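Now for a sample.
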Amino acid sequence: MSDFVIRIIPTDPYLRIPEESLQIAKELLVDRITCDNIQIHSFENTSFIDCGGNLQRISCPHCGSEVDFAWWGDEVSKVYDKSFKSLSVCMPCCNKVSSMNDLLYDYPCGFALSVLEVLNPGVEITAELKEKIESIIGSSIRIINAHI
C-alpha cells in the first residue's frame, strides 16, 4: 500500500523559512489535520520536491508544449551540478528561458529549501488553512500531493 503525502513549499525556491516559522506552521497543521505524521525538512541547497508517482507530464509555461522527461532529467542534472544556484533553462520547444520551478508539472512539483510534509492526512488543505500557513511563513505556498 502506498502513502499519500502533502508537501508544502514556498513558491520562491530560494526562500529560507526561519525554523521558528516552520515550527509554528507545523503546530497549526497538528491542530487542524488528522494524519500519521508531520515533518519539517530543510536543505542546504534548493532541492526538487516531487509528487512521487503522480507526475504525468511536464509542459512549457510559455507555449504549453509537453517536454520530454529525458530532456527534463538532463536539465535537472545540469542545475544539480551547480547546486541549484540557477534554475534557468532554455525551453526546447520555443527557445524561451524559464525557471525549472515555473514549468507546468502535472501534478504540481517545485523546488525549495524547506518543506512541510503531512503523511496520510485525513483531509485536504483548505483555502483558509493555506492562507494561514502563508501568513505564518511570510510567503505564498505551493501544495504538492505525492503518492510514495
Remarks:
- Residues 4-147 form one domain.
- The radius of gyration is 16 Å.
- The CA atoms of residues 48 and 111 lie 4 Å apart.
- The longest strand covers residues 37-49.
